[in-house]
Amino acid sequence: MKSSRVIIIIVLLLLVFGGFSGWQYAHRRIYRELQAVERVMGTHPDSALSLLRKISSPDRLHGRNRAYYALLLTQAYYKNYLPVTDDSLIRIAADYYASGSDSLRKSQSYFYLAQVYRDLGDRRRSLDCFHRAGLSAEGCRDYKYLGLLYYHWGCLLQEEKPYSEGLSKFWISDFYKRLLGDTASRVYSLTEMGWSYILLEKYDSAYHCLSEGLELENRYDRNPYKLSVLHHRLAICYYLNGKYREALYHLNKETWEEGSAPRRRADLMKGRSFSGLQQLDSARYYIERIRQEDDLDAMLEYNLMSSRLCRQEGNFRQALAYHEQYSLYVDSLTHRRENERVMQWQKKYDYSLVRNENMRLKTESQQKDIVTLVCIIVLLLLVPVFYAVYLRFKRRKESFLRRQHQLMEANIQSLQAKDSELLRIRQELASKERKWRESVFLSDPLVKHIDTFVQLSLLDKDRLFSSYKLSGADWDHLISLLNSCHNNYVSRLQSEFPGLKEIEISICCLLRMHIKNRDICYLLGISDDALKKRKYRIKTDKLHLRDAEISLEDFLCSY
């Protein structure tokens, strides 16, 4: 009894150790797969997203793998320009890395959490997460990530209008990009730095940053979109500084598509520049181009600029009419923005409801997991007890079964002898029945009549075939005889192959009786070619025998 308990404990320990080792191996394998995904994320984000989606059962990941997967999946969504509708995924990574020592992934978690909050319209929480990401990134050597972090942080600060703080983040971003030697990314930083200087009314500094960005873009990348943005902001800088001709020069360098929003902004700036140069006809031409009845912002600018042009022309009555239209569009735009603000608050409220529901479901899931774990532990503890009871019951049952077995062996031997004798008798009866059926079939007058005809010579067959031709009654008798002596042969054929005609049934019966083709032609009164065509049609169309290795005669004889 003690030895069995020791064996049970050893087996349980081995099972626990084996399960833990397997779990550790799977955990490390998934972690290596996630590291491979991170290596291709920068150059091929679409491939990284595809690899992440191929990971089986991501909802079953735990701990480090779960947080790592959540971080990489959110990063892949943003790099592939896919929308992220809530923070439930990246929150997993942020909560895990918040108390860890991995500063880079901790900072990345807060960075992408800030991006999610920014897209959801929660600017306060987004700025807080950017601040945490910056604090967590202290001492980090990944200059590419640091440049990206401070660039997006500066963009959000610029939108919230602390322009000087946003400008400081752009300077830090540009510093890391210079260390990295990333010219293409530097152009983005210089563009936003120039815009911040414009908003701060420091036009000389804005001109310096935008000119440097334009020079780098012309030298290396020559991207039409970035060149147009730089020219447009330089034009704004010159316009605000009163240099209208220089502004027009840069506006003419822009390459926006006709009818697009950037093209309308460029036309508006051209209209303002020509107005500053007192070239009112040219200004009127470009102001008319921005007129869009379905765009409130465009109509707002159109009426405002038209009112100013009419005042310059001395047409004050028309200027007042345009100004009244401008006031109406201001009211409409204010009403629309109020509606958008209400919709944002509604969206935040709905989001909070969804988040609370997710927290409730998560709590319920954790409770279920705890109950399941307790049940498993109880079952593991009860297994040795049940096994001991089972062994005691098994010993008692074995002694009883041993006695029963001895009694049953004698009965089995006698039954086996009787079964063998019964089988032998059945075989003899089956053999005798087959012989009897064959004798009955062969002794039938009609069969003898057909055999007599088969034994005749060819001359006698040609001379006497009309007297041996079978009548309808003969065929009915032959079919009845085949059914009775060969296990309902004809009935089975008609049931399984209902498309067989009467003459085709007759051919099948004669082939089953091993009658040769020439004799079948005499008995049925048909030609040899007609018989061949009938046989081919029976085989392929009626019996569906596509296999060339089996003949029609073999199939009918074995059917």
The arrangement of helices and strands along the chain is HHHHHHHHHHHHHHHHHHHHHHHH
CATH class of the domain at 34-140: Mainly Alpha
Tally the beta strands.
Answer: 0
Poorly predicted sequence stretches spanning 5 or more consecutive residues: none
Q: Structural class, from secondary structure content?
A: mainly alpha
% residues in beta strands: under 5%
- Most strands sheet: none
Indicate the overall shape: elongated
Organism: Phocaeicola coprocola DSM 17136
Protein name: Tetratricopeptide repeat protein
Keywords: Coiled coil, Membrane, Transmembrane, Transmembrane helix
Transmembrane segments: 370-393
Supply database-style keywords.
single chain, elongated, 559 residues, 24 helices, Serine Threonine Protein Phosphatase 5, Tetratricopeptide repeat, mainly alpha
Fold and architecture overview:
It comes from Phocaeicola coprocola DSM 17136. The structure is a single chain. This protein has 559 residues and is mainly α. Helix content is 82%, strand content 0%. Among the domains are: 34-140, Serine Threonine Protein Phosphatase 5, Tetratricopeptide repeat (Alpha Horseshoe); 458-558, no CATH class. Helix 11 runs antiparallel to helix 12 and helix 16 (316-443) crosses helix 19.
